[in-house]
Design brief:
mainly alpha; single chain; 318 residues
Length: 318
């Protein structure tokens, strides 16, 4: 106990270390500063002066990112989140704002396009590698923050606002957009209109004839977690653009499905699945999503494939 009090007493106010470390970073000694940020913040954590440790780590993360040191900045950002957990800081507007400030410092660079000669290809390869590093680094930070938020007061899936941040960064900064991964985070977010605008941006890039699959997937993903409200908001945003999907059976299915889920109509739900079976088969994921929707809205327990397999074996044995 005495040793701990001495440690508390010998540590100066965090601001003194913040100013000292800022000078080291501004002088270009990024690696040296990184080691100092980690060791100095650790001392404050040991002394249970968590708020000051957070100040040091936030300052260091933002400064390293500002200087283009993405890996260093992201490492300190993850340590910032780990300190939120150690200090048992609740998820609230103040802590969310601190996470957002770090997130805003991650570089936003236009995704490079294919160029001409060998020199250009080399530059392109390097730029794509840097883009992947930025995305992976930011994703590591935000995933840690989402996990903290779920544990300390946000939604059980984590903060919807953090999910939207991650979805946007993944989509606009990744060299190759994985719309499934992006959609996963958008549907756990709180901004279906932003998701709709991102989806429409994607439609111009996806393969010809698969626009309806991307739209249907987005709607079904919302419904699979029981969120009929945001599924309808997304759907209405898409419809306002007057896109011509009149010939798509898949879009017809989504139209009827959204109406069906507004009432207790399991027989009609099952009939829709049978009627549009061939359209749903265009994307293997759809039937799994529909099983989840049936469970969420109608309490239908999903069948375990192993149970079915062993049941068939026992029938054969009998």
């Amino acid at each position: 106990m005495l040793r701990e009090r001495i440690k508390r007493a010998t540590l100066p106010p965090a601001q003194e270390n913040i100013e000292k470390l800022e000078k080291v970073v501004n002088d270009g000694n990024y690696y040296g500063a990184q080691q100092m940020y980690k060791s100095i913040s650790a001392r404050y954590i040991i002394a249970k002066r968590y708020s000051e440790a957070l100040d040091i780590l936030q300052s260091g993360s933002c400064l390293q990112l500002q200087h283009g040191q993405v890996i260093c900045g992201a490492e300190l950002a993850v340590l910032f989140v780990e300190t939120l957990v150690k200090g048992k800081f609740p998820y609230d507007d103040e802590s969310l704002d601190r996470v957002r400030k770090i997130y805003k410092m991650f570089p936003e660079v236009p995704v490079p396009q294919l160029l001409g000669d060998d020199d250009d290809l080399q530059k392109l390869s390097e730029a794509l590698g840097e883009a992947k590093t930025r995305v992976d680094s930011c994703a590591s930070f935000l995933k840690a923050a989402i996990k903290w938020s779920a544990e300390f007061g946000a939604h059980s899936n984590g903060s919807p606002k953090l999910h939207v941040m991650l979805a946007e960064y993944l989509y606009y900064q990744s060299p190759e957009s994985d719309i499934g991964r992006v959609s996963y985070h958008f549907v756990r977010g709180d901004n279906p209109k932003k998701f709709a605008s991102t989806l429409l941006n994607f439609l111009g890039k996806c393969y010809t004839g698969e626009d309806d699959i991307a739209i249907a997937r987005a709607v079904l993903m919302y419904l699979s977690i029981g969120n009929l409200r945001d599924a309808n908001i997304l759907w209405n945003e898409i419809k306002q653009l007057d896109l011509d999907f009149s010939s798509s059976d898949l879009i017809q299915f989504i139209t009827y499905l959204l109406l069906t889920l507004q009432r207790d109509a399991l027989p009609l739900f099952n009939m829709l699945r049978v009627t549009y079976k061939s359209s749903l088969a265009r994307e293997p994921e759809f039937n799994e999503l529909l099983d989840e929707i049936a469970e969420k809205f109608y309490g239908v327990q999903r069948r375990n494939p192993l149970q079915g397999m062993f049941g068939d074996i026992f029938k054969m044995m009998g």
